[in-house]
Automatic annotation (TrEMBL):
Coiled coil: none annotated. InterPro entries: Amidase/PGRP_sf, Amidase_domain. This is N-acetylmuramoyl-L-alanine amidase domain-containing protein. GO terms for molecular function: N-acetylmuramoyl-L-alanine amidase activity. It comes from candidate division WWE3 bacterium GW2011_GWE1_41_27. GO terms for biological process: peptidoglycan catabolic process. Residues 65-223 form the N-acetylmuramoyl-L-alanine amidase domain. CDD domains: PGRP.
């Protein structure tokens, strides 16, 4: 089933304020979503994210080159927040980028707070770049199911991930590529995360390694089994004397 009004989308998506022009359409889709089965809801989301991904890729959506520098609010990193993508299938980086532009940046530009009201109507921007391309990832790291960690944002960037701006300004986000709402990650994934933390964030106190659901009570991310479950496994791995050499080479993103 086709959910998006293609004619309206194509007419508005190349405008710098496409997110405002299409806001009534997004609200219509949100209302439709309420009555859909889980399978149909995922189909609707897939249609939206694939459309954003396509139009970012072909240049129909042009990020603002004059961006507000929210990273000037970056503080010393004292917290690590663990996430999962909640996707059953592995995400490409271009899809994750599109998903985060739509879910994290679009709502903020549509309804900015008082301090940022001047951005409303401007082209969406993040001020974050890789290889000269503006990116919209909310996470600093993505850990694949084989344990391979991929760097998404450098640590000087504030990741828009926690739903709590104070936490965002002083944390890094490590996300597992998968859906762990009712299951636990494989031990090789947890070992990789523990090594990543030991290699890069050894000064972060153990008690400040938190799940998304511990800093934002409105989510189950990174899964119902994290608190009191696989979080303990992860913490114990970090505490152990793991080899100082990393089992995987850290990959830099190419936004693809």
């Amino acid at each position: 089933m086709k959910y998006i009004n293609d004619e309206l989308w194509k007419k508005q998506i190349s405008q710098k304020d496409w997110y405002l022009r299409l806001d009534p359409e997004f609200k219509r889709l949100e209302n439709i979503q309420k009555d859909l089965s889980k399978e149909d809801e995922e189909e609707l989301k897939e249609e939206i994210y694939s459309s954003i991904e396509r139009d970012l890729g072909n240049g129909s959506i042009q990020p603002n080159k004059k961006y507000h520098d929210w990273d000037d609010e970056r503080k010393t990193i004292d917290t690590i927040v663990i996430h999962h993508t909640s996707n059953d299938k592995s995400l490409t980086l271009s899809r994750l980028n599109a998903k985060h532009m739509f879910r994290l940046y679009r709502p903020f530009f549509t309804n900015p707070n008082e301090d940022n009201k001047a951005i409303k109507g401007e082209a969406i921007s993040s001020g974050h770049f890789t290889n000269g391309v503006q990116i919209f990832y909310g996470y600093h790291w993505l850990v694949r199911l084989d344990g391979t960690p991929e760097r998404l944002l450098t640590d000087n960037y504030v990741g828009w991930h926690a739903g709590n701006w104070d936490i965002n300004t002083r944390s890094v986000a490590i996300c597992i590529d998968g859906n762990f709402e009712t299951s636990s990650p494989d031990i090789k994934v947890l070992k990789s995360i523990s090594q990543l933390i030991k290699d890069n964030y050894k000064n972060v106190p153990i008690e400040n390694i938190l799940g998304h659901n511990e800093v934002n009570k409105n989510t189950v991310c990174p899964g119902n089994g994290f608190i009191g479950g696989w979080k303990l496994t992860l913490i114990n791995l970090i505490k152990k004397n793991i080899s100082s050499s990393s089992p995987f080479t850290y990959k830099q993103t190419s936004n693809s």
